[in-house]
């Protein structure tokens, strides 16, 4: 699709939808078309249209972008309901998401439960879709649907709970579950809202840092390690918890961040309760 073709398409779609916009989800940037049909970067992030200060938890455009397809969802501002269609397009070879948004006001849609309950039901569904039920961290599906391919995440850390099998064998699975929940709560207290904590599998966790400075990255990982090691669980006061952490920082978007972080985690697990990280050009 050329710029001229997308300009014509957007002009026609605006006759139908309340909002029509082009988004680069990899950098959460919105674009408009000027009178000459040229793409102009807007001075705000794409999520600001939803009165949010950070990227949407269930970003349908990120999910559709990763699969190069079209998807739909409901979005909300307070109790107003919007239907969002997000379609993958390429304009002169560059990928974008074409978002088409309609505000829903048809009372027949909400008559069975009411508009407020409809909003609550969809919000609950969106959260259950991407949140680990035990720990409250994001799940692996969230990472694969929402974070893969983003360009402004240059720092990743893989973390493994030390001796977790021994904890389960010695104290029981109830203690193991409590340990995981306590560790996640502690990690989240040492993160920013813009970072994402994912339960990657079992007792292994992943943090994707958003726009963190390279000189802050190592300090952030060390503060997490230290905070977890200082945990005292009232039910199991003799149990000492610790993490092995492997991190990678790079502005090179072509590297396999997960694989590189996993290598550093492997090195950290040789000693346990340590941080190992490196920066790559």
UniProtKB/TrEMBL annotation:
Pfam families: GGDEF. SUPFAM superfamilies: Nucleotide cyclase (SSF55073). One of its GO terms (molecular function) is diguanylate cyclase activity. Signal peptide: none annotated. InterPro entries: Diguanylate_Cyclase (IPR050469), GGDEF_dom (IPR000160), Nucleotide_cyclase (IPR029787), Rev_trsase/Diguanyl_cyclase (IPR043128). It comes from the Bacteria. Residues 152-281 form the GGDEF domain. This is Diguanylate cyclase (GGDEF)-like protein. It comes from Longibaculum muris.
């Amino acid at each position: 699709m050329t710029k001229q073709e997308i300009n014509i398409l957007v002009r026609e779609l605006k006759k139908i939808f309340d909002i029509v916009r082009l988004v680069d989800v990899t950098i959460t940037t919105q674009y408009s078309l000027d009178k000459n049909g040229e793409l102009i970067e807007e001075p705000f992030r794409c999520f600001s249209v939803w009165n949010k200060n950070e990227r949407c938890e269930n970003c349908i455009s990120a999910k559709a972008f990763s699969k190069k397809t079209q998807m739909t969802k409901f979005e909300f501002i307070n109790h107003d309901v919007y239907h969002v269609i997000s379609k993958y397009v390429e304009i002169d070879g560059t990928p974008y998401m074409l978002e088409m948004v309609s505000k829903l006001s048809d009372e027949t849609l909400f008559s069975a439960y009411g508009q407020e309950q409809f909003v609550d039901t969809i919000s609950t569904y969106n959260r259950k879709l991407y949140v680990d039920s035990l720990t409250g961290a994001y799940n692996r599906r969230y990472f694969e649907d929402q974070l893969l391919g983003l360009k402004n995440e240059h720092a990743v850390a893989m973390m493994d709970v030390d001796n977790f099998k021994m904890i389960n064998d010695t104290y029981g699975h109830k203690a193991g579950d409590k340990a995981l929940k306590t560790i996640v709560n502690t990690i989240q207290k040492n993160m920013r809202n813009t970072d994402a904590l994912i339960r990657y599998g079992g007792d292994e966790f992943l943090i994707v840092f958003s726009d963190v400075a390279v000189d802050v990255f190592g300090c952030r990982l060390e503060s997490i390690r230290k905070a977890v090691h200082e945990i005292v669980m009232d039910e199991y006061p003799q149990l000492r918890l610790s993490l092995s952490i492997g991190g990678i920082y790079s502005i090179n978007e072509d590297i396999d961040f997960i694989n590189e972080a996993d290598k550093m985690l492997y090195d950290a697990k040789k000693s346990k309760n340590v941080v190992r990280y490196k920066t790559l050009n």
